[in-house]
Structure formats: structure tokens, C-alpha cells
Amino acid sequence: MRMRFWEKHALSKKKCYMWRLGPLSIWIQKGMADEWSVAFTRNPSDEGIAIARIEKKPEDVAWTRYVCADRSSLVQFRPALPDRAVIVDSESQLKIIPYNDALFYISIPLWLQIYVGEDMDTMLCEIPAELLSNSWFGDTTEGELCYSLRSRARRELTDYMQNPHRIYCPVRVVNSAPTTLQFQKLCIHVESLRVYLAKHLLLSSELQITYTGLETPGQIVFSQDKPSIVKESTLISLERTPSSKSILKKSFSILKYFTSF
Amino acid sequence: MHMFDFGLEKLLQLETLYTALKVVIILAAGFILIKILNFSIGKATKKRFSQQSSMLIRKAIFYTGLFMILVTVLRQLGFKLTALLGAAGVAGIAVGFASQTSISNIISGLFLISEKPFAVGDVIKVGDTTGIILSIDLLSLKLRTFDNLYVRIPNEQLIKTQVTNITRFPIRRLDVLVSVAYKEDLERVREILLDVARKNPFCLDNPEPLFVIKDFGESGINLLLGAWFLKTDYLSLKNSLMLELKERFDRERIEIPFPHISLYAGSQTQQFPIGLEKGDTNPGGDNEHRQK
Fold it and tell me: Which of A22, A29, B76, B157, by CA, is between 20 and 30 Å from A88?
């Protein structure tokens, strides 16, 4: 069921289709030859998945019309990570003792991208599955606008499998310093991460953060490979910021990751 | 003799025509050259300098070019520039005395440009006027207010008065003053206020929202909720936060007090009794409060 959600769907003209992915409900109608209509709502109490269910066109939602030269009636959803960095705030204090490492899974609400066209190369729009609060990384005179996310920073992946609208980011934190690392807040540049589909789970590429002490800059490694925590996975979305451009940014961000708030 | 006169006249006419043609060519070529130079300099300085500095450089080039064209044209027309400049010097002193305010504005403008307290596009507040800076010139600053008025403020005034640059920093804090009744549990009110701020998508989680018990007012306890936001989200945050606070207070049955007066019937401790009579179900009607 979850795999089918991300496959291509051929729509009949002038019929209204509904999909649901966790709290997000989406209606799509292929109207005239070159026109698409899209509407969505968010209801935090909704969960589960609904795929291409034909429904009467709801009138109480805000519709947006898109004109697209490609007259094909194929539609496909792609999961993407948020368009800005995410500040992950751990719900409970977590400490990593010297010369130890730990793997955490950060669950990030996805952005649903709607692609149409014969070659699936035209993006109509993208809709965040959940609205995240804004946050600021830096001081009051300069910094970076991010999203804020509360996380339990779980150690087991099975705990999460209930949420189809979330992408799980494996973060390995290595404490190479002789002092205890207190993990409180973490700024993850999710724009540099890829998304993989593994059976019924969405995973991002892995991230390794090495802490070498307060005096020395740490190291961030954005993996370009498939996630090693699952046997099989398929690349479903590329990173928003191309790797070549992000190298400098990543290097520059190293200090930021461990800056205390 | 007559023939000679006719020839001379013709020659003079030709010479005048030639001079006129030269003047026209100098004017046309000069203007085109200035425009091209201005455009190129504008493009070159766009990335390296601020919008305001780029505008000033272009203006300086334009007026210098204009002066050079004028001098060249005057020379072509046969004016003696030495005498003209001498006369201009004398006239300059006279004009200088007469235009002290303008000179003061120019000097103030130079100070403002070097100090850079604001730039084109910033939102500033000068006295009671708040608006977006359209241009910073040598004599004055031009603003567009939010109700679309064009305001010109002399530079001299800007140097003398307090100017607030609202958009200088990327984030700002919105202070919402809330008053609650004395009977309310302040700890609970604090939790509710911070929760509303935390759940608002425009309110930044970091820096964290601020809660301050301001003072004990006449009708209730005055509180302050300081919510940080991105400078572009001012209206979105203000409207949504106020709506959410009102809705939440109504839901949680937290009373927002309004000014009221207690009446005493001679005694210092006993309040003057006021109540509704039986059957009076219209609290907003004429018989709302009847004294017993």
C-alpha cells in the first residue's frame, strides 16, 4: 500500500481523486487538456494512507489551478525533505560519554511534491505534510532561518513505522573528545540529504557528526550512498542543494552544529 | 561691396550652422556617452556596493558628465570660460550665503552616507512617520509610507532626530500586552501564553518566547508576551497570535478584565450591592444593572 502511493497514477479526465498521507489529504483533478486542479487540507488526527480514491469534488477547500503544456494525465508523488535546515530539539537530555558513538533516527515531516507529465519532469507544487514552526540559528543580529522540530531521537527504527508522512534521518553522533557530549539541539541541513524508499519506509541518506571537543571544529559527513541500515532501498528524491555547491556550506556549517544555544 | 556683404553674411551663416551642428553633436554624443557610462557603472557597482552607494556613484558621474558637456558647449559657442568661472566664483559665494540650509543638508547627507544607519529598502521610523526608504540623496531622504504617501525628509533633520531602523536585523520581537483578572492562576496563564506562542508557525522557537509579569494594574495583572519572528512576518504573526490568544483564553475560561469600578455605600469594606432582577435575561438591555 505504502509503496503504491509513490507510483505513477493515470487519472481520468474531469474526475476528482483523493489521496491521504498521514494528516495530509490531497485532491487532484485533471480538467481541460492542459489544466490541473489541486487542493489539500491538514488534519492532525488523520493517519494512514488512501490512494487515488474517486470522490465528489469538495467545494469547501481552496483549489489552485495549474496550466501545464504536457497534456498527459499521469501524476506521481515524490517525498522531499524541508526546504530549510531543521533544528532538532531533543525531548530529553542525552549525553554521550567520551569515545562512544550512537545512532539516532530523527523523524522529519516530508514535503509532498506533485509531478505530472509523460516524463514526470514537471513539478506542479509541493505541500508540507506538517507545518513546522520557524526557528532561528544564530544570534539576534545574524543567523539562519530554520524549522523547529521536537524529537525523541529514538535508537530503534521500528518505533516509527506508524507514520507514513515522515522521513527518517539516520544520524550517527561520534564523540571523539575526552569530555562528555551533551546532545541538546542539532541543526541538520536537510537540503543536502537524499530520500530513499525502503519497502514501506522513507529514509534519508546518512549523516555522521564527529565531535572533537569545544576548542576544535567537528566534522560533518553527508553520505551520498544508500542507507546502510536497510538491505535494499531505492533513491526516490535527490538533495535540494546539489552536492558540489554544498561542500563549502557544509564545511562552513561544521562550527555551527556544535554551537551552544 | 554689396556682393562682399552677401558673401560675408553667407560665410557667417555657414559658420553659425557649423557651430550649431557641432553643439548638437556634442550634446547628443555626450548624453549617449553619459547614459552608457552610467549603465555600465551601475551594473559593475550593483554587486560590489550597496544600492545607495551605487546610486550615488551614478549620480556623481551623471552630473560631472553634464558639467563637462556644458563647458564644452559653452566653449564652442565662444564664451570665455575664465571670465565665466570667475563670475561663477563670485556668484557662488553669494549663493552659498543664501543656501546655508541646502549646504547643511548636503553635509548631513555625506555624514549619513558614510555612517550608513540605513539603506534603500529599509523600513525606518522618523518621528511619527514610518515608511520604506525609496532613495537617499544629498539633500533629502525619500520614504514611501505604508498608506502609500511620498514623504521627503531633509538630511539635516535626520542627523538631529532619532531614527529607528525597523528592518536592520533579520529577526524582531513582538511584545503583546495581556491583562488577566486577579483571580487567575498566573502559572497556568504563563503556560497557556507560551504554548500559544510555541504553536504559532510564525513565532520563532529560538530565541524562546518571553514572559514577563509587568505590574498589578487597576483592573487586572498586566503581562507581557514577547514573541520573536522573522522581520517579514510581522503582520502574519501579529494577527494570528492575537486571534489565537483570544480563542485560547475563551476556551480556557481565562478572564481578560476591562476597567471596572466598585461602589461602596459609606462603609470601607462593604461593596455597594449591584445585581440583576429576576426575569431580566438581557444583560445588554436598558435594565442591565438595577440598584437594589
Answer: A22
Contact A145 B230 (CB under 8 A): yes
- Please give the Cα distance from B27 to B24 (Å, whole number): 5
As given in the structure block, the three cell numbers for residue B195 are 504554548
Residue whose cell numbers read 461602596: B264
Q: Are strands A49-55 and A16-21 parallel, antiparallel or unpaired?
A: antiparallel
**The three cell numbers locating residue A90:** 531533543
Q: What residue of A is the nearest CA neighbor of B233?
A: A134
* Domain CATH for B228: 3.30.70.100
CATH at B147: 2.30.30.60
Contacts of B227 in chain A (CB under 8 A): none
Would you state the pLDDT for residue B248? 96
Query: Does any CB of chain B come closer than 8 Å to the CB of residue A99?
Result: no
User: What ipTM describes this predicted complex?
Assistant: 0.73
Q: Inspect the interface and report whether the beta carbons of B170 and A131 lie closer than 8 Å.
A: no
Indicate the pTM of the whole model. 0.71
Residue B209: name the closest of A187, A84, A134 by CA: A134
Asked, for residue B44, whether it belongs to a domain, the answer is yes
Residue B92's domain spans which residues? 12-98
Question: Which H or E element spans position A74?
Answer: strand A74-80
Amino acid identity, residue A92?
Answer: S
Q: Which three cell numbers stand for residue A145?
A: 532561518
Whichever domain contains B72, its CATH number is: 1.10.287.1260
